[in-house]
Amino acid sequence: MNPVDSIKRFGENALTLATRLKGLGYHLGDLPEKPGYWYEPVFCSASRQEREDAVRQIEVRVGPLPLDLRAFYVELGGVSLLGFHPEWPEPQELDPFSIAPLAGDWLGHHLNNLDEWAYEMRQDGVPAFIELAPDALHKGNISGGPPYSVSFPQDSEQQTILDLGGERLSLIDYLRRSCKWGGFPGLEAAPELAQRLPLTLLCQGLLEI
Questions:
Q1: Across residues 151-167, what is the average pLDDT?
Q2: Residue 122 has what pLDDT?
Q3: Cα 84 versus chain centre, distance
Q4: Considering its fold, how many domains does the chain have in total?
Q5: What pLDDT was estimated at residue 1?
């Protein structure tokens, strides 16, 4: 399957998961006693033209993006399933899926970081990177490690490799893992917790990516 089709299918799955999660009482965007803590919407609200322009701004700084990452940012922009359910494991255990958008305040943040890198760190051999999401602990509002990220340069003809708190995983495999566990890729490391979620219902009929 080509990267664009995989990304589009993930987008459909993410919409299905968000709808099902909300129907099950999952508080999208909230943390206990902190409504709206995660201010980004479930799906990026920027237009396709704005998303394409954002990708071009990033590519001016780091070179051509791999096809799958470029497709993610152009087709979806960003997706966030951050939140909590009062009867399910804690967010830091579930590690809900999130990739921040190339839009709005996030785009400015990404561009500022890349410009700072070019000015201060490039000559020292430090790789450029884009922050993707808080690490698992920060998703539960607990002080943790550095954010999940993607570093550059990467081969534009190969799959994107992400840094997920020290684990290196391709973007497509991360999307597949997230669908496998109903939007909560952290369950890969703690499958016993899945018994506390209606995983069959969440995953029913999701598209193969």
A1: 91
A2: 61
A3: 16
A4: 1
A5: 83
Say how far apart CA 184 and CA 10 lie, in whole Å: 14
**Phi-psi label, residue 151: left if phi above 0, alpha if psi -120 to 50, beta otherwise:** beta
Residue 208 lies in a domain: no
Q: In what order do the strands lie in the sheet with 167-170?
A: 128-133, 148-152, 161-164, 167-170
pLDDT class of 121 with cuts at 50, 70, 90: low
HEC readout, the chain: CCHHHHHHHHHHHHHHHHHHHHHCCCEECCECCECCCCCCCCECCCCHHHHHHHHHHHHHHHCCCCHHHHHHHHHHCCEECCEECCCCCCHHHHCCCEECCCCHHHHHHHHHHHHHHHHHHHHHCCCEEEEEECCHHHHCCCCCCCCEEEEECCCCCCCCEEEECCEEEEHHHHHHHHHHCCCCHHHHCCHHHHHHCCHHHHHCCCCCC
Amino acid 124: pLDDT: 63
Domain extent at residue 80: 3-203
Q: Please indicate, yes or no, whether the overall pTM of this predicted structure exceeds 0.85.
A: yes
Residue 10 belongs to a domain: yes
Rounded average pLDDT over 50-77? 95
* 148 located within any domain: yes
Q: How far apart are CA 185 and CA 64, in angstroms?
A: 28
Residue 209 lies in a domain: no
